[in-house]
């Protein structure tokens, strides 16, 4: 088993990446149902929590069916991050995670997320403040470095471990790469094999199939992998990876009935957590992925997006299941 302090995870756990506007409780519910072993909230602005912003506070919602679950924080001010670690601890997650990897301008250009890769002393100070202000395990997600000339994640791993983090997830790209190009896991492998490193090391980046998960597991020797974009509209990626790792065989893709049932579960959780108006609106971004490759997918998606009443959307989903359209791509 893999341990993050007293938190016991299965051998080679599969983690759901914290994705802004995606990894909310309804999405986490369908990923958990398909085998995700550890999940994180969307990243939460420390400044937003201090201001008591409604959107930031809402992201603190965690539910027992999601456990184990981590709350992920980002920010640019050391004291504020420490204070928000205490606020987040009161929400009773299983761990606190710090985001030192987000590359988007709205975050990095404000001195948060991946920007801290250019100021390791501040990163160390900030991490120490978080560790001091919670009794929960603290973990970190980061990248290889700011750009190709400053790949400093090896130093980051050692220094953050020394001040008390208990697991590290590394995305195999620099901030400058954003999400372009191919993720490079060679530095992740080097950190995992560093004799000074004793905390779990999880790899992230480009895992989009069971075969690639198995290949990277064997090639890079990480303790587990984090899956992000490949799970959007396809939470079955977790069960498929687990089955392949256990048997060496590929599972059949989800049936139409399974696609409809999972989309319905996601939709109902969305309505339950967000309310009908917001739940209907925010679910629209997911339909194309759930029914990608389905005969008549464009028509079904258009009807689902145009519908404004939850009962109408449920009727359309039932129509899709009853029609039994075939997969064409």
Using brief descriptors, characterize the structure shown.
two-stranded antiparallel sheet; single chain; eight-stranded parallel barrel; 329 residues
Secondary-structure map with pairings?
Layout: E1 2-4, E2 7-9, E3 14-16, H1 25-33, E4 38-40, E5 44-45, H2 46-50, H3 54-58, E6 69-74, H4 78-89, E7 95-100, H5 105-108, H6 120-132, E8 138-143, H7 153-162, E9 168-171, H8 186-192, E10 201-204, H9 210-220, E11 224-227, H10 237-247, H11 256-274, H12 276-283, H13 287-290, H14 297-306, H15 310-323
Total of DSSP H or I helical runs spanning 4+ residues: 15
Question: Into which percent range does the helicity of residues fall?
Answer: 40-55%
Main sheet: strand order: 3-4-6-7-8-9-10-11
Mean pLDDT across every amino acid position = 94
Q: How would a textbook summarize the main sheet?
A: 8 strands, parallel, barrel
Unreliable segments of 5+ consecutive residues: none
Distance N to C terminus = 38 Å
Reading the helices and strands in chain order gives EEEHEEHHEHEHHEHEHEHEHHHHHH
How much strand? 5-15%
Radius of gyration: 20 Å
User: How many strand units?
Assistant: 11
Protein structure class? alpha/beta
Overview of the molecule:
The chain has 329 residues and is of the alpha/beta class. 43% of the residues lie in helices and 13% in strands. It has an 8-stranded parallel barrel, surrounded by 4 helices. A two-stranded antiparallel ribbon has the order 1-2. Helix 4 (78-89) links the parallel strand 6 and strand 7. Helix 4 runs parallel beside helix 6 (120-132), helix 9 (210-220) crosses helix 10 (237-247) and helix 11 (256-274) packs antiparallel against helix 15. The chain is globular.
């Amino acid at each position: 088993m893999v341990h993050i302090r007293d938190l016991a995870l299965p051998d080679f756990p599969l983690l759901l990446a914290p994705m802004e506007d995606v990894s909310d409780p309804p999405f986490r519910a369908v990923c958990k149902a398909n085998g995700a072993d550890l999940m994180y909230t969307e990243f939460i602005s420390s400044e937003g929590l201090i201001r008591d912003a409604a959107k930031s506070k809402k992201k603190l919602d965690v539910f027992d069916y999601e456990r184990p679950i981590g709350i992920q924080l980002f920010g640019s001010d050391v004291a504020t991050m420490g204070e928000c670690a205490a606020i987040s601890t009161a929400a009773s997650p299983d761990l606190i995670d710090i985001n030192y990897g987000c590359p988007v301008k709205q975050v990095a250009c404000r001195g948060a997320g991946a920007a801290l890769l250019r100021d390791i002393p501040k990163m160390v100070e900030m991490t120490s403040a978080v560790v001091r202000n919670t009794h929960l395990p603290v973990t970190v997600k980061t990248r290889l470095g700011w750009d190709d000339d400053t790949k400093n994640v090896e130093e980051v791993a050692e220094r953050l471990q020394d001040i008390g983090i208990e697991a590290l997830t590394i995305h195999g790209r620099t901030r400058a790469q954003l999400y372009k190009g191919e993720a490079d896991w060679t530095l992740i492998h080097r950190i995992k094999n560093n004799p000074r490193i004793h905390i779990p090391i999880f790899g992230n980046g480009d895992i989009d199939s069971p075969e690639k998960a198995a290949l990277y597991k064997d090639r890079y020797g990480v303790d587990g992998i984090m899956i992000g974009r490949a799970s959007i509209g396809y939470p079955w990626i977790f069960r498929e990876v687990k089955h392949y790792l256990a048997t060496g065989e590929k599972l059949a893709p989800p049936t139409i009935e399974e696609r409809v049932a999972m989309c319905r579960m996601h939709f109902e959780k969305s309505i339950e957590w967000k309310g009908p108006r917001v739940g209907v609106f925010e679910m629209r971004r997911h339909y194309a992925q759930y029914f990608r490759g389905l005969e008549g997918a464009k028509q079904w998606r258009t009807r689902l997006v145009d519908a404004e009443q939850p009962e109408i959307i449920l009727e359309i989903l039932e129509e899709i299941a009853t029609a039994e359209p075939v997969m064409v791509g």
